[in-house]
Write a structure and sequence with these properties.
Elements (H helix, E strand, L loop, with lengths): L5 H10 L7 H12 L3 H12 L1 H4 L1 E2 L6 E2 L13 E8 L2 H10 L4 E5 L17 H11 L3 E4 L5 H14 L5 E4 L15 H9 L2 E2 L12
Parallel strand pairs: 3-4, 3-5, 5-6
Antiparallel strand pairs: 1-2, 6-7
Helix pairs in contact: 1-2, 5-8
Amino acid sequence: MPKFPKTIEDLIVQLGTLPGVGPKTAERYAFSLLKRSRLERERLAQAITAPDQTLTTCSTCRNYTEADPCIICGDVKRDREVICVVANEQDLLALEHTGEHRGLYHILGGTLSPADGITPRELTVRELVERVRLTKPREVILAFDPTIEGESTTLYVSRLLAPFEVQLTRLARGLPIGSELGYADEVTLTDAIKGRRVLSPERVTEPTPF
């Protein structure tokens, strides 16, 4: 027997699909929305659906953008010889907030996790290798979460890029093991990116094909 009318139940269910939103939080959000004016709810609905009409993906870094290339890739003041590889858009934003990285980015689309069905084919690994081959940057920073998946991705990508004349670096261990870039504070991220070190890909096992 439903506790609320079906329209409210449906709203709670949809809100509950958001990351980190449990049943109680979904109920609280739902009734908070119901207490708002119709105009406020319409503005929220428009903000949710607007990206379908306005957003695209940057053909260079794979970030969300309203114009291709995105603002970062189109900025002539950025150091175009340094590419920072991150797993997702939130990690890019977190690093941008530090103001320390003035190069470009490449969003991989996640990290390797065979248990979850995430293989190189689900990521933009091929695009990254081709980009490095064509643009010949002097440095590629591998900025992944210090987790098992992040470490596996770092080793895999570093091996693929090893044949190119590019310095491979990773973030310093200012980030604790098991943490996520998107939740790290700016001071920790600043220390991590300042203290990045060169990788030694020769000790990495041969990567599997795309």
